[in-house]
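Before we proceed, please read the two lines closing this message. Let me know whether the structure tokens fit the sequence:

…
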Amino acid sequence: MAARSVARATVVPAKDNRAASSDRSRAGAQAGVARAGSKLQEILSMAEEKGLLAGARTLVVRGRMPFELVAQAKRRTGITSDSKLLEAGLASLALSDDYAEWLLTNRGTISPDLNLEF
């Protein structure tokens, strides 16, 4: 029987001082990402605007990752903190562009009778 991997999330009660520290944490995350390039910085800014980074950090996400995957992601982004790396990765997934999927689902929907002028 194959072993199954189960993702776990734990909710940790927020302390009173976390609200102020979350602002500092976000600032630190964006400063750490400044070296990562404008695309990642833009993703974090959009996540901030949509309220995805607001509030206290109460959810603990744990997982075992291949060392090289994490090391390459850190090299590519310039992020050194595991938590900040996960935050940037989750923001990227949460705000991902679905254009390619949309394009494929609309394949063949243009009428062959449409004059494209070429």
